[in-house]
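Office hours follow-up: a student asked to see two folded examples consecutively, so here they are.
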Amino acid sequence: MNSLAFETDDMRPVRAWCLDGEVHVALADGRAIATPIWWYPFLSELDDKALNDIELMYEGIWWTAIDEGISVKSMFLGIKAPGAKAPEKAA
């Protein structure tokens, strides 16, 4: 699937927020997607206020405070940022 076929106006983010260890994105077509925050190590140092200071872009979302972002496509495809490591599970 090429990029043009995947990214459509219906998949445009209309709202984004971080809650309970997840990044959530609501799409123009009514769907929503969530991925674990740990997938994006660059978000690890942000507090709740900074995590939710998100700029919407046509293909994804952006945190201006750290000049980093993620695409809706990468969320759907399960692509983690480099260095992503699942947290250790408590025994």
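And the second, which I mentioned at the end of office hours:
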Amino acid sequence: MNGALGVAIAATFVWLGMVLAISFLEAPLKFGAPGVTLQIGLGIGRRVFRALNACEGVLAAAALAATLIHGDATAALVALLAATAMLAAQLLFVRPALTQRSDAVLAGAEGPRSRAHYVYVGLELVKVIALITGGVLLLT
């Protein structure tokens, strides 16, 4: 295994682990913790996801660049590009709607839950599948 391949594999699986830990473990558990109100949970969640998304951007760049440098990994590159596209869709199209809704809730507004949250989770699921696929392809 050369250095670029190792970096690609590491970046891919660290990215996958972060998404699984934050999106599918920390986020749902936070709202069930004693004393955590919706406003507190949203405030924490906004900071955590802002940090997660920044780390994801760095890991996506590292994984893509290392896969390109390694060469001979077209299928893995396509999977990593798909994961990166899901991240971009979340940041550009879904996150603004979630931010608008959380701003309103933090200001005291009530109303129906945002459907954008379900879109975000759907994109997370696709991203997880793409990262698993890309990581496994890099290992083979």
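Two things to take away from it. Helices lie at 3-30, 38-70, 74-106, 116-139. The chain has one domain: 3-139.
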